[in-house]
Write a structure and sequence with these properties.
Layout lengths: L3 E4 L3 E3 L4 E7 L8 E7 L6 E6 L6 E3 L7 E6 L4 E6 L8 E8 L17 E2 L3 E6 L1
Parallel strand pairs: 2-11
Antiparallel strand pairs: 1-3, 3-8, 4-5, 4-9, 5-6, 7-8, 9-10, 9-11
Length: 128
Amino acid sequence: QVQLRESGGALVQAGGSLRVSCELSTVYADDYAVAWFLQAPGNEREGVSCIGWNDGTAYYSDSVKGRFTISRDNAKSSVYLQMNSLQPEDTAMYYCAAETRFPDSKWWSLDAKPYHYWGQGTQVTVSP
């Protein structure tokens, strides 16, 4: 039903900033909650940030609160993750995911399990 494409990953210096983008292949982007996940080599995929489909409320993992900002532009079918004050521990493959329904009548989730639509990822590397 929808395809996702990430872009914007790069090598950056610690303390720097980067914005990654996720484009959805649908004109109905406002039907989807969209989340960013990261996966470091050998680790499980973990939630970074999510923006709900209903009212655009943003949610963040504790590790990125105050540093990262998620936003969406439904007219462009895109979701963005602005990453500031990047640290080496932020180094990972960043994936975006989209979903329309979640358990327990939720509008969003930072758990990977509910998501059915995933992008291929974009690499973010932060040098010390």
